[in-house]
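Archive record:
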Amino acid sequence: CPCSLGLATPAAIMVGTGRGAELGILVKTPEALERMQHLDAVVLDKTGTVTAGTPRVVRVEPIDSYSRDEVLCLAGSVERHSEHPLARAITALALEDGIALSAARAFLTEVGQGARAVIEGCQVRVGTAPYIERAGVAVDRTLEHGARTCVWVACDSRAVGFIELADPVRSSSREGVQRLRALGLDAIMLSGDHRAVAHDVAQYVGIETVHAEVLPADKVDVIKSLQNKGKRVAMVGDGINDAPALAQADVGMAIASGVDVAASASDIVLMHSQVVDVARAVELGRATMRTIKQNLFWAFFYN
């Protein structure tokens, strides 16, 4: 009776992917279910994965003779040309406050660092402290609040203020990390944010290993370094910057609330955009492989 042998694997995969769809876990390749049972570590991108990816401005601090509205106007005039979540939050606040944004020329962005443009004859830079400092502008980092993301604003050769933003942690992230650890997996967090911000979020959700201030191009290197140590790695992300790391990982998982590029580079799409679904996907993969082995055993035994 060869039929049972031929049906053992595809029947289990069909049921597994169907159950995944019911849970909001879309499995694009059956191989991903097989690789799931061998995972050693899960790498989580912070912004948009562990956190909601919808930052909001909590403080605008001008320096010297500049006012709050002037700092927000300069930052918003540059950032409205950017698609970054932080940029959108700054622009949204400026528009909510009724601030008239100025026309920007020669806009240029540096991924993961900041952006610059010419506003009314002034070279305005908006971004991280290192990005501003590389332009020869001095910033006082002691003014930054450690647990918040700080965006500096500079006009020509001096800093005119900074903007602090907070990104709420997803409600399911803490439970999701606990379930991953219960499955015997190492939970690792990647972030381009300041070290203090990343560690604050990691501590809250229970992650011990954190790679902070990681540039988008370096995310792939983190995955490769883990793989070179013999670990099988799953990467979970949501943005364009995560796509290369998702493709490099043994299993790539994309948050559905992210961009299409991330979803196309991944093996699994998490429709509910919850970290807890990462653990469910691992459990699903293990259960599917267990069922395949049981089906094959009974098929051979029957024959």
In short: The mean pLDDT is 90. The chain is about 45% helix and 25% strand.
